[in-house]
Structure formats: C-alpha cells, structure tokens
Amino acid sequence: MAEIARFDRVTYTYPGAPRPALEDVSLRIDPAEVILVIGGSGSGKSTLLRCLNGLVPHFHGGVFAGRVTVDEYDTREARPHDLARRVGLVFQDPESQSVMTTVEREIAFGLENLGIQSRAITRLVEEALISLGLSHLRHATLATLSGGELQKVALAAVIATQPHLLLLDEPTSQLDPVGSEELLAAVRRLSEDTGATIVLAEHRVERCLHLATRVLYLESGRVAVDAEPQEFARWAIHAHRELLPPVARLFAQRLDGYGAAHAAADRLPMTVKDARHMLDVIEDSTPHRLPHAVVPTDGEVVLETRRLRVGYDPDIPLLDEVDLTLRRGELVALMGENGAGKSTLVRHFNGLLHPLAGTVTLLGRDVASLSVAEAARGCALLGQNPGDYFVKDTVAEEIDHTLDALGFEGQERSGKATRIVAELELAGLLARDPRELSGGERTRVALAAVACGEPALLVLDEPTRGMDPSHKVELARLLRGWTAPGRCVLLVTHDVEFAARAATRVLVLGDGGVLADGPADEVLNGSLFFSTQVNRLLRHALPGVLHEDEIGWGGTLQ
Amino acid sequence: MTPTGGGLPASSVAAGGPMGLRGAPEPVVVGRRTVRRRAPEATPRGLARLRPGVCLGFIAALGIAGLALASPVQVAVLLAVTLLSLWASGALRAAVPYLKVALYVGAFLALLNPIFSRGGLDVLWQTTLGPLTVKLTVQGIAFGVTSALRLATVTLAFALFTLVIDPDEQLGLLSRLSFRSGLVLSLAARLFPVFSRDAARLADAQRARGVELDRGRRRERAAARVPLLAALLTRSLERAVDVAASMEARAYGSGGRTRWVRRRRWTAADVLTAAAAAVAGVALVGGLATGAFAYDFFPLLDDPWAMLANGWWLALAVALAAPLVVTRPWRR
To answer: Which residues contact A437 (CB under 8 A, 6 or more apart)?
Structure first.
C-alpha cells in the first residue's frame, strides 16, 4: 500500500532554540491509520504535526534537516498552502485559529482559498455543518460560541476541505467530557467513513487510545516508541505506567503478581467495554476495594456563599441560590459542563466579580467589603493560562511582586518567600524568565506567584489543561501537600480522572445551580460522564471506587 | 461533605437525572435548580434580513441624504428614520457608543456655531470681546443644532452599516474592491473581542495577586497597568502568529481564490428595499439638481415646514421610510 507521508531522518530546531524540537525522526504513515502521538510537554508532538503540513519549516523558520514527504510532495519545496488540499490541521486553541466572524463563513474560508467554486462551497459547508451537528449555529457569531462549539467549528472548517491527512493537536484540551466525547466521535466517524488518515496529539490517553491503530511516544524530540496500542501498553507497564488509560493500569496491577513473562503475553483493555469483557472471563482473581481513609470534613470554614446569584445579566443568572461552604483541609473539585458557570462562580470568591444577589464570606468577612489585597490574602486564584500572570523578568521578581502587593514585610515576607520556593521546588528557577520555562515549570511559577501569600483558600481553574500525565501526578501530590497545614484547595476542572485522584469532595454545577455536592466517591460514582473509567467498570461490584490505587486483586469479588 | 440547604431532591438525581446517576448511592445535593438557558441565536430582523448589497444601498442613501440635506426638520426626520432603522434591526443598544460620540462632537458644534456665526439677524444676546463682536442669533443656534443632527445622522448610518451587516458580509462586499482590506476588517472584528478578553484576564490575574489597578490617582492607576501592556502586547503577538499559521495552513495565499456567495433568493423585502433605495437616490439627485433641497439659515431662516410639501422630499422621505415597513421588524 502506498504510504501517505514519510519522515526521513528529520531533525528540526526552532529559531534561537538551544536544542532540536525533533531529532532524527524517521517514520512512515499509511492510509487510514489513526496515529496517537503522546509525550510530555515539549516532547515535539506539535512540531511533528506541523512538519506534516509544511508549517515547519516554512512558517516557523529554524534549521531543518532530513525530509518529510506527503503524497509525494517534499515539504521543503511545497508550502503549507500547497499542502492544504491534502492536509488539514486543527490547532489546540480554538480562539486563535478562526479568521472569520460567523460559523458558515469560517468553514467556507479554506474552501475559498483553495479556489473551489461557490456552488460547491455551499454543498461542502452544508455537509460539514451536518456532520458535526452544527447546522443550528450556521449564522452564529464565533465570539458567542463555547470552547467546545468553537473547536467543532475548527474541525468542520478542516474536514470541509476533505483532506487525506487530518492532524489534530490536543483538540480536546479545552473541552468538558461531553464535548470531548462528541468531538472524538466525529473524528472516529470521519476516519471510518472516509478512510482519512488521522494523526492525533493528545495528553488524555484514556479518551482516545481506543481510537488508535498505532501509538507514537515522543521523548525529547525522539520517537521512543512506535507500536500498535497493545504493544505500546506492554511497554508502558514498565516504563511509563501513567501513560496508560486507568482501566489498563488496573489490569496491569493484576499482572504485576505474575511476573514479566506473563505480562508480556497478556492483553490490556483500552476501554471500559474491553475491561468489562476481560473481567467476565478472568477466573483466577477478582478486584476488591482496599481500605481507604475517610477524610475529616469538620475544619474551620474558609468560605461561605449564601443565596448567591451570579451572572452577567440580572434577568438570566448563570447560577442562582448557591449555598456552599468550603473548609480547611478540603480539596474540592468543581465540575460541570462548559458554560455551567464554574469559572464565573469562583471569580466571586476573591471579589473579581460581584454577585447579582446573595453574599460571599471569606474567613468571616464579606468579600464585597474587602480590598483587592485583603481578598487576595485570603483567596488566591490561578486562572486557566499561567502565562497571564507573568509581568516580570524573573521568577524571583514575580514572587516579590505579589508579596509587595499583599503588603508583607520583614521576616514574615522572607519566610513566605522561602517556604513557597521550597514547596514548589523553584530554587533552581529563580533567576529564569518565567516565559521561557517549560509547561509544568510555568504552572509551578504561576502557582507560586498567586499563592506565596499562603492564603487559606487556593482556587485553580483548569490546572491540568494541556498537562501531561507525569505532571498531573506531581500536581496532585503538590495540592495534597498544600491542604495538609489546614488550607483549602478548590479545583475547577473537566478532568474527571484527575479530580477523582486528587479531590476529597466534588461539586457539580449544572442547570443554574449545584447539582451535586459530596465526597468524591459518592458524587462521581455512577455518573454517565463525570465519572472515571474504573468507576464505570466496577460501579456495581465495588460502588465508590474511582481509581486503580483503591483496588487490590485476589479473593472473591465483594 | 457540607450539607447546606435543600433544593433538588437527591432522588431525582439518583433516578437518572441530569447526571444519569441511576442505581448509584445518593450524593448529597444542595442548591436549587433554576431555569438558565443560553439565549437562542438571534434571528436577523429588520434590515439585517436583507441581502447585504441591498442593505448597503439603503444605508448609503440614508447617509448621503444626511450629508446633503440642510433643513432642520428634514434632518430631524432623517435622524428619526436612522434611529428607527437601528431599533427595527435590534441594534439600537449596540449603537449607543456611536450615538455618544455623535452627541459629544455635535454638542461641541452646536455650542461653537452660535458664537462664531455672525450672519443672523435675530440677535438674542451680544457682547464685545476686544476687537471681536460675539452675537448669539436664532439663526446661528439653528445652524449649530442642525449641524449636530446631521453629524448624528451620518454617524448612526455608519453604525447601521457596522452593526447590521455582519463583518463577513462586509468582507464579501469589500472583497469585490480589495480582498486584503476586507480581510483586515474581518480579522479586526474577529480578534477585537479576543484581545479585550485577554486584557481583562491579564488585569484579573494581577488583581488576584492583590495588585490594586483601580485605586489611587490617574497616574498611579496608569503606572499599575504599565506591566500589563507589555504582557498584552506579547499575548497579542502570539495570537497574531497563531492566526497567521492557521491561515497559511488553510491555503491562504495560494492564489486563485474564489468568493463564496451564499445563494440567497431575492425576497419581496429585498426587491422593495432595493427599489426604495433607487427611488431615494433619484429623489436626492433630482432635489439637489433642481435646488429643491436648498435651505438658508442666514440672514433669516427659511421656512423649514414649507419644504415638506416638496415632491422630491416626499419621494425621498417615503423611500427611506419604506424599508421600516417592508422588512416587517415586528415579526420576530
């Protein structure tokens, strides 16, 4: 079968970068493959995709060695617009990839550029709208769409051009579980119906490993693993277990007791359905829930809302009658679909927004009566983009900037600075420009910048967006440590697996209010979308289990 | 766990409610469900229902009439038609910033004109400032107020263009002349709200760290925001690079570009409005050529009411008001 694309010993370095983003990459991509590209932040995933449509090297410049061919076109000679009929790329940030202002026009933009006749464009736009369920939004202005809708429009705009090779760069990183499922279902349908080749870079492996026919794992710009999913899974059991979907990790635990030979021979499930089937046929061992600690919930109240109504239009509140209490020692996950009002709600906790009605009390004082600095001393909020926080030239200056604003002086100030640097392991980064750090380091520095005043409540809005699995493990550890001295952490997140692992309590927003509030294992147990893979698998046999660390194998099913 | 307040019965959730928690242990549920629905996508109404070319023709006739006519009553009628067109198209609220600009500049004109217009005979008040004699006359006041009304009419006609015809349609119209200029306009319209949100987010990030951006004297507030400007510039450049990459990946610049024209049937409203715009154009040319629209403020005011019976004016007024009826703005 003729290949669709090929990398021959490609090494590429961005302009001014100290080391190559891709190093000696050779691979072949065949028609109808669905290739999942995974790897840590900065491992070269996006660069690999950009090589395939010619943005590397034509748009980004830099030093390019080797050869990439797509449908016989050498990308050193063919420019991105020459390849656009064959290759479509959906970028990570939907905000930054749209050009026009309305949905229909946005989809038509690429087709117009390709010189397609108006009548044919009408048909292709219509088909793209229908295939992604966007017909009702055809006249909508892009500025009014949610992140999920915008990402679907971006995908529609690309598939309208009917590319042979579809590249998706972390397309679900900003979507809620429902939006992600819908987008990936559309991708799967496209692959199955049209035979398009898909290369998908994604951190959340559990969402898409089952779609893949092949997995590429990149490490520091090199292809460390190029294998079909089962082979990759067997490699990951020993090398990087955190890369596996939770149900695969669960079964990998079972294999741990059998030795390497058994592990190498056995299959791992990639989906809940696979796992359920395997569970049915296993005879020698059964999963059981390990004893787990019950987290006390009687800490001092940090924040309280009473009959809170929030929104931007008094006639159409986003949330109404919200009564919440957050206590010291809690690690709470706030979940809900895109647009449910999660980010809006937490911006009332430090006074960035004012309620339409009701009150927010922070450490016993009405937030409305607090100055900006007073509110920030009690409640630190880290938004979705760590880059928003960087206004100084070094990490040390960023920390000083906050401590200045909060009015700390003398020993108290130096003590806080020392503690946050130690806690977030920033000693080696203090003289560095925060904008030049890697993704995980930037998150840590931004966290230090907002939290160095040691507030009682730390709110993080989508902290795992675009974060690779190893950094998530590190973040969960860090946040648990943060609550240990009696502070409270509130996570606003779509990442159910992370919430299940990190949080002790879960709040779900929806339909204009709080739909559910309780211990994580109660709220996440049995939900259709806001639930973990392990819970979906074992919810009937072991109600309340959320992740594989709570499971042991052996004995009889309890 | 923090049980606070009542509301949505836990049973309704556990029974397969919004989260589909069928058969699961009941979580503690708090809060009260309220009706929150995202506003439905606005259906175009008024002039926004028209083909963009027709709409542009009508707005052009309105704007040119605003520039060409001088009689205070005629100009007031044109302003009323413009405001009604904005209202009928659901754009009146969005036009408030335009109206404010017109009012500020118009007020300036209305105040200065009476002082420096010296041709009027009906003197209300007079004084001498050195070599300069300042006379406040009825004619000067009328001229100043009429100039302000004309400015408001033309400004709001421009508001009609920008608010009622969506930027992509504007691009379609302009691309017949210059695609690149039209694209810049479209990108500006697309990215302006994005940059505004970026700016708001950066400011909020500083407030979340305790930085006071809104207190103190103007100089202190400006100084507090200086670091934000550099960050915003960086962010804007990053976004611009991303958009450029996206455009290149979507074949922009490959040559041989076509223009998608949405196939759209001519409706009765389109035909009638196009005819009305044509009539308005003929009436304008006819009225100006025959001197029927001539109006003198000095030395004495012409009778503004006498001109209303003029045939050219009647044709123009009826033609400009017609779209308010034929587009049936009352139909949502």
So the answer is: A395, A429, A445
Answer yes or no: are the C-beta atoms of A271 and A526 closer than 8 Å.
Answer: no
Residues A407 and A457 sit within 8 Å (Cβ to Cβ): no
Please, which residues bridge with residue A335 across strands?
A508
pLDDT in tens, A312-325: 878 888 899 999 99
pLDDT of res. B118:
67
The 10s digit of each residue's pLDDT in B148-206 is: 999 999 999 999 988 888 777 777 777 777 777 777 777 777 777 788 888 888 999 99
Q: Quick one: tokens of A398?
A: 């960023």
- C-beta neighbour count of B312 within 10 angstroms: 20
What is the distance between the terminal CA atoms of chain A, rounded to a whole angstrom?
51
Per-residue pLDDT at A72: 85
Kindly report the backbone phi and psi dihedral angles of residue A228, in degrees, each rounded to the nearest multiple of 5, phi listed first: -75, 160
d(CA A9, CA A25): 5
> B30 and A517 in contact by Cβ < 8 A?
yes
Of A52, A353, A352, A317, the residue nearest A200 (C-alpha): A52
d(CA B63, CA B57): 10
**Quick one: what percent of chain B has pLDDT higher than 70?**
85
Tens of pLDDT, residues A39-54: 987 889 999 999 999 9
Show Cβ contacts of residue A380 under 8 Å, excluding neighbours closer than 6 positions. Answer: A350, A450, A451, A453, A455, A457, A458, A459, B208, B209
Task: State the DSSP H helix or E strand holding residue A454, giving kind and residue range, or none if neither.
Answer: none
Q: Which residue shows structure tokens 């809005």? A: A461
- Average pLDDT of chain A is 88
CB contact under 8 A, B41 and A318: no
Q: What is residue A294's predicted lDDT score, i.e. its pLDDT?
A: 64
The per-residue DSSP string of B205-239 comes to HHHTTT--SSSS-HHHHHHHHHHHHHHHHHHHHHH
Among candidates B21, B243, B253 on the partner chain, residue whose Cβ is nearest the Cβ of A96: B243
What does the H/E/C string look like for B46-75? HHHHCCHHHHHHHHHHHHHHHHHCCCHHHH
| Chain A CB contacts of B258 below 8 Å | 112, 115-118, 121
> Token match 């596996």: residue?
A244
DSSP 3-state helix, strand, coil percentages of chain A (rounded to 5)?
40, 25, 35
A84: tokens are 């656009």
Which amino acid is located at B134 in the chain?
A: V
Mutation target to probe the B interface, by most B beta carbons within 10 A, among A101, A118, A338 is A101
- In angstroms, the CA A425 to CA A40 distance is 19
Which tokens hold the place of B142?
A: 């009328």
Q: Which of A472, A483, A480 is nearest to A443 (CA)?
A: A472
The model's confidence at residue A295, banded by pLDDT at 50, 70 and 90, is low
Interface touch A543/B258, C-beta < 8 Å: no
User: What is the structure's pLDDT at B203?
Assistant: 92
ipTM of the complex: 0.83
CB–CB of A527 and B256 under 8 A?
A: no
- Position A483 scores a pLDDT of 87
**Could you tell me the end-to-end alpha-carbon distance of chain B, in angstroms, rounded to an integer?**
48
